[in-house]
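Q: Here's a chain of 138 amino acids. Please give me its 3D structure as tokens.
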Amino acid sequence: MQDDTVLAAGCVLWRRSPYGAEGVEICLVHRPKYDDWSHPKGKLKRGEDPLAGAVREVLEETGYGCVPGARLPTARYVANGRPKQVSYWAAEATTGSFAPSEEVDRILWLTPAAARIRLTQPRDRPLVDALVAALHSA
């Protein structure tokens, strides 16, 4: 039997807050096709390493380079009738700037608490907690 699982990868992109001792901000992307807020992620190209795909997707969707860090929990769910597996990493944003595209028309930098509320899919919320835990243990 052929496994038709869709393989994807992404990052919980973060930066140190520019507003003092607040801590960190998390980047969420808005996809107009789905009218949702999520972490930057996307399907892997054939044979692509998941971490390389995650970094590529962050750059494509947000315009920011990043330094990947801790591995975060893998999300598994059904999308369009097919199983999907998304590998995630924590990633600190480096240089770059956002430019709207057909795929992502807006991004927001939010505190972890605000990001948890803004995320459309409940399954994306534990990734925020995992990022915070990874940063505190680093």
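Q: Can you summarize the key feature?
A: The mean pLDDT is 94.
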